[in-house]
Structure formats: structure tokens, C-alpha cells
């Protein structure tokens, strides 16, 4: 049924916040994808028209988390990441025909969880008298979708196993800061996100390995080959080891990532 693929695509392109959350909620959890066709990743996914996208250096800083403005800026930045994650999951679910039905079910489940993450953060912004879209946001988060639009093995490696995995690394530090401030409400939202994101990275790991297997590729070697080819960011430093192991990283991959991060520090 191509109608389901079109329905996912329509949710991806929807710009209105309420309509988009409704559209994601209405998506099926199981699909029969045998007759799906290639639908190219859009240059721009649907996002609120009034959201101002700026270079990362022009995104408002959030050093003083203890002030209302600092808290709002942090929650807004996190909401933007989750909003983008909805679009990334929807695109993963409709851009790559020819995979097992379980692949699409997994990414539809991820999209629904991302929508819940976004809605929970947005609720905190609204409690503070604002909303998502009030601050400028990072303009670069869709680039990796376009960079990996031609091949699901690239997408699985670079989006869940790099971008979402970096989220696993970053969340404990953010939670510690919120806990130090006694911000139980925001910390509780991040606790749910932290737990569910392990599942998203695990979905990426599973399908990355599955695709490598199909093509006779060594998944560990191929992961780093793709990282070299497509990721220009820093490999990171503080890895959330337990979370990454639970999310399907091998000991060897973690050791290699750590060695690369150390090498990068040494070479400045
Ligand atoms: Fe999320
Ligand atoms: Fe996620």
C-alpha cells in the first residue's frame, strides 16, 4: 500500500506544529511496504514558517541555566533537536524502499517517540510563557539527512549511530546540571528521552548491521569508512559507554572511537 508511504511523506512535509504532531500520531505502527517507491529526501522538511534558522554560533547561549532565559534557551535548543529528529525518523521510514517491513515499523515507532519528546519539551516552553519558534535555532541539522539520502546504510551509520549517539553522550551532563539546580521537571523529561534514545540508536545499529550483512560488508570496518567519508565533526570525547553498548556499539567500535578522540586532542 503506497498510501501509507504517502502518509508518512505528508507528515514529513507538514510545517504546522499541531498538524504535524497529529499526523505522526495517526501514522500506522505496522506497514506492508512491498510496493513502495523511491521518494527522495526533501531539501527542506516541514518546519514552522516563523522558526528562524541561523548558523550554530548565532544560536542563543545557555551558560546560565539557573536563569529563566538560560533554561528557556536550553529547552528550546533541545526541542529543536527533537523536532528535527521527528523529521529524520519520518524520512528514514519513507525514503528507502525495498527493506523488510520491520525496518519501517521500527522507524515509525521512533518517529512517534520523537514526537512525544518534542511535545514534552514544548510543554515546558509553554509553561514558561513561550513556545518553540521563539528563538533562532541551529540551521545545520538536516544536512546529514541530505548527505546520506542515497543509501540507507549511510543513513543508519551517520544519523542514529553518530548524531543520536552523540545525544546519548551529551544527556548525562545536561541532566547533572539540571539536577544541581533542582529542576526536577526538566530532568524528568530528559530521563525519558535518555532511555528511549538508547532504543533509537539500537534500531540504527540493528539495521546498519543487517544492511552490511546483505552486502557482504564488515560492519565495524564499514562504519569507520563511512565516518571518514561523511562526518566532519569531532568524534567526541566523553562517551556514554554503557548506553552505547546497550545501543549496539561493539567494544572494538568504542575503543576505536576513544582512540580517535584522544588522537584528535593530541594533534590539537
Ligand atoms: Fe528524541
Ligand atoms: Fe531519537
Largest sheet: 2 strands, parallel
SSE sequence, one letter per element = HHEHHEHHHHHH
Structural class: mainly alpha
What is the domain total for the residues? 2
* Main β-sheet, spatial strand arrangement: 1-2
Work out the helicity level.
55-70%
- Strand coverage percent: under 5%
What's the number of extended β-strand segments?
2
Low-confidence stretches: none
The radius of gyration over CA amounts to 18 Å
Q: What is the mean pLDDT?
A: 94
Globular, elongated, flat, extended or rod-shaped: what is the shape? globular
| Distinct small molecules bound, one entry per kind | fe (ii) ion
Q: First CA to last CA: what distance?
A: 53 Å
What's the assembly state of these chains?
single chain
What is the number of helices? 10
Question: What is the compact description of this entry?
Answer:
By secondary structure, the protein is an all-alpha fold. The protein has helices at 2-13, 17-25, 68-94, 101-127, 143-147, 152-180, 184-214, 219-230, 241-246, 251-266, and strands at residues 53-54, 137-138.
How would you sum up this structure, described in words?
Helices cover 65% and strands 1% of the residues. It has ten helices and two strands, in the order ααβααβαααααα. It starts with a helix and ends with a helix. The model has no long low-confidence stretch (mean pLDDT 94). The longest helix is centred in the C-terminal third of the chain and has 31 residues, at 184-214. Helix 1 (2-13) runs antiparallel to helix 2, helix 3 packs antiparallel against helix 4 (101-127) and helix 4 packs antiparallel against helix 7. A two-stranded parallel sheet has the order 1-2. It has 268 residues and is mainly α. It folds into two domains: 1-54 and 65-138; 151-268, no CATH class. The radius of gyration is 18 Å and the shape is globular. One fe (ii) ion binds at residues 82, 85, 114, 117, 193, 197.
Amino acid at each position: 500500500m503506497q498510501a501509507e508511504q504517502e502518509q508518512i511523506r505528508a507528515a514529513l512535509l507538514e510545517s504546522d506544529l499541531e498538524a504535524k504532531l497529529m499526523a505522526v500520531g495517526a501514522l500506522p505502527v505496522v506497514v506492508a511496504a512491498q510496493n513502495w517507491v523511491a521518494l527522495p529526501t526533501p531539501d527542506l522538511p516541514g518546519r514552522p514558517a516563523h522558526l528562524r534558522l541561523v548558523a550554530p554560533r548565532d544560536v542563543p547561549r545557555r551558560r546560565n541555566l539557573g536563569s529563566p532565559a538560560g533554561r528557556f534557551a536550553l529547552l528550546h535548543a533541545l526541542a529543536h533537536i527533537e523536532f528535527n529528529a521527528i523529521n529524520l525518523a519520518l524520512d528514514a521510514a519513507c525514503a528507502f524502499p525495498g527493506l523488510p517491513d520491520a525496518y519501517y515499523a521500527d522507524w515509525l515507532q521512533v518517529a512517534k517517540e520523537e514526537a512525544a519528546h518534542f511535545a514534552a519539551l514544548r510543554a515546558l516552553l509553554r509553561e514558561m510563557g513561550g513556545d518553540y519558534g521563539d528563538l533562532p535555532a541551529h540551521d545545520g541539522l538536516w544536512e546529514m539527512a541530505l548527505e546520506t539520502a542515497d543509501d540507507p546504510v549511510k543513513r543508519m551509520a551517520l544519523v542514529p549511530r553518530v548524531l543520536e549517539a552523540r545525544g546519548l553522550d551529551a544527556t548525562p551532563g545536561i541532566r547533572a546540571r539540571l539536577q544541581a539546580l533542582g529542576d526536577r521537571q526538566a530532568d524528568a523529561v530528559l530521563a525519558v528521552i535518555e532511555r528511549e534514545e538508547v532504543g533509537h540508536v539500537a534500531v540504527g545499529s540493528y539495521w546498519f548491521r543487517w544492511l552490511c550483512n546483505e552486502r557482504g560488508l564488515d560492519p565495524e570496518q564499514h562504519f569507520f569508512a563511512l565516518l571518514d567519508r561523511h562526518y566532519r565533526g569531532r568524534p567526541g570525547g566523553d562517551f556514554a559507554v554503557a548506553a552505547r553498548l546497550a545501543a549496539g556499539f561493539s567494544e572494538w567500535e568504542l575503543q576505536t572511537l576513544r582512540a580517535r578522540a584522544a588522537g584528535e586532542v593530541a594533534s590539537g
